[in-house]
Amino acid sequence: MTSRLWLSLCLVLTLVLGASATALAAGKTFKLAWGTDPEALDPHCQLSGPMLQYCHLVFDPLIRWKKDNTFEGRLAEKWERIDPLTVRFHLRKGVKFHSGNPFTAKDVVWTVERAKTSPDFKALFEVFETPVALDDYTVDLKTSKPYPLLENMATYIFPMDSKFYTGTDEAGQPKDAVVKTGSSFANEHESGTGEFMVASRESGVKWVMKRFADYWEKPGKGNIEEILLTPIKENATRVAALLSGDVDFISPVPPQDYERIKGNKDLQLVTMASARIITFQMNQKKRPEFANLKVRQAIIAAVDNAGIAEKIMNKTTIPSNQNSPKGYAGYNASLTPRFNLEKAKQLMKEAGYEKGFSASMIAMNDRYTNDAKIAEAVVGMLAKIGIKVDLKTMPKSQYWDLFDAEAADLQMIGWHPDTDDSGNYGEFLLMCFDKDKGFGQYNRANYCNPKLDELSIAAQSETDPAKRSKMLQEVEKIAYDDAAFIPLHYEPLSWASKKGMNTADVVNIQDFPYFGDLEIK
Amino acid sequence: MFAFIVRRILQAVVVMAVISCIGFAIKHSFGDPVRELSGMTVSAQERERLREELGLNDPFLVQWGRFLKGAVHGDLGMSYLYKKPAMEIILGKAPATMELVIAASVIILILSVPIGIYAAVRPRSWLSRFFMGVSVIGVSIPVFLTAILLISIFSVQLGWLPSFGRGNELTPLFGGAWMSGFFTWDGITHLVLPALSLSSIMLPLFIRLIRAEMKETLEAEYVKFARAKGLKPWRVLVVHAFKNTLLPVITVGGVQLGIMIAYTVLTETVFQWQGMGFMFLEALQRSDVSLMSAYLVFVGFVFVVVNTVVDIVYGLVNPMVRIAGRK
Q1: What are the E-state strand segments in chain B?
Q2: How many domains does chain B fold into?
Q3: Which of B78, B168, B272 sits opposite A232 (nearest CB)?
Q4: Which CATH number fits the domain that encloses residue B163?
Q5: Which pLDDT tens digit goes with each residue over A434-460?
Q6: Which residues of B touch A231 (CB under 8 A)?
Q7: ipTM of the assembly?
Q8: Which among A53, A156, A454, B165 is least buried, having the fewest CB atoms inside 10 angstroms?
Q9: Distances in whole angstroms, Cα of residue A401 to Cα of each of A287, B23, B41, B75
């Protein structure tokens, strides 16, 4: 009797477990934890990392970045340059928005026009004229001058459902309004073409995204049915949530936990260096000593950026001698590391500052990986050539106003080009500051070299990739020879998850994980 | 009594006015919200336009006046980060904090009363010494460390309890205005670790307070008399002695409740517990100055109300308080 009872119990259990196993195979929930969640549902609300990551889930771009820095078509099947001002995009047919509306060229035109009114995207899309829809599935993107980065910008065109976003909402506000600090239809509703639809969202707490049944890519490469996104702000808690199995995937991972995750047989870690260069600027007006080329060269020679990358960054990134990372058009392979303490001391002597001098420095403590520690290390290194640095670190919320006001002689800044192109570094960090034209907006070193400006501007409208690449490499060379700034390394990116996911295939230097292609177990 | 209540309420109003001024004034030193709201490449002109649009360029008094006018009507402004009215956000987050504080208070109450009484009655027993020793350790470990220790033991090592958040099975109460974690097993398991770490700061304090007060009362003449009269020992302890230790405990409790709400900032941040404390820190770090001042004013309001009520209750319990105030 007892054995029969046991047997039937076992049978029932097997059935139940088997049933739940098949249920799991059919619909996989993917528990994802990010440091911060996207600000809103409107792609044009804010230009930020989390927003773009969200857009790659819920909307599809015309084209997107591949890992080798080329592009692959998404909503555009193919595209070709017609003339220096025009690129023609042939759109995918049979694509539906989440609302059920069909996707056509009209939506592309509408989306570009809307981006041009958004405070965050306005500047990036300034060069674009109104696109021309030739028919339902062909659209010409036009620019007002020859523009080499049109493809880069097309990765930011996430077509929105023009029909869905037209009209007025219950509050009488137009549905297409871009609102940054209040409620709006687009901030709370979405209709994109992406693989996932937002089923529910509680800002800062929890997002539920479900697979869109009518998604065009069939069968999708990945197998996620539902994404449960929770922001977990504290690094330690985010790692603990992964270790305890409460979530499946986390990003970013604090460097101090890399070893712990690598050592865990149930977990896997993927890291890479991004294109976000971490640097210090030396203010040549505020600190007269910095106007002396030899002093700047001495400082760069005193900073052991390879040591910082190895010791403080735990070898998670690569040191840099220029702005552009390898693979970028402007990457100049001839620029070699400059760390040489003896030479640094020699240069200080030649400059007449053998006894050194004092300087002030500001850095953030909550923005980049180990930012405050990096700043402390640089202070120590400069002390070796007699420069006494008075360092202040602060949260990012207080930093940028001081940065703009040139509050210190040495100021930290990390920069990732929105265009994913070398030219952008120069335009914002190195060109002579010009408030009206918007050049050198973050050049608070008062560094100015007309030749660099000339090349940077010429590169903006050079459509021959080879010529352009040469110009940008020349820009890097000029900045290198002028010792314009202290390059350190690239901000590392990191993703950790349970074992058995093809994470390495879906992540990229842009930090836009393509979760639609992720296979989970 | 009526005059006493009116006087206390008038005082409370003055305090509120001061709090609103301070809460509103300090927001200017917590960074630039426009910077947080826009991408790095947004031009200075565009930022200036946004700042103008948000009314951040107006003189302080104009901004404060606008804030007060709204506040009187219960409107504390819009949260830049959540893009919703600040009041709605705060009220939405309040239940999470309240449940955490309630759960921690229950833990404190259940543990501190018997332990406190026991330690007073049997001060020399090894158990009392053990409790007193542990409570010293409890006071000296910072709450975020306790929290991380609890997570690493009970979630990561043992895997018994979830490591963060409130779980996915919340029960809507009052038509969804209060999302409660008290009614599901999932909700309770999520509550255990945060409540424990939050109670860890106050528990030792209350054990010591009850023990000290109880010891003093046990020396009193009337307790001796009660014992001499032949009353049962538990009746002497609970009804006669313990009742009289309650007065200071209530006072301290009122003040500590406020401190506990302050400590929720740390506990909630470590556990990604989506309450008001977490929200406040987030607002601070992301320069949501509008939500920040709204929260300060709101918390100030709660404090003032709690303290006023405690004062009035005190007056009811002990007539000397309200008479002393009269001149």
Answers
A1: 78-79, 84-85, 171-173, 178-180
A2: 1
A3: B272
A4: 1.10.3720.10
A5: 888 888 989 999 999 999 999 999 998
A6: 272
A7: 0.79
A8: A454
A9: 19, 22, 14, 29
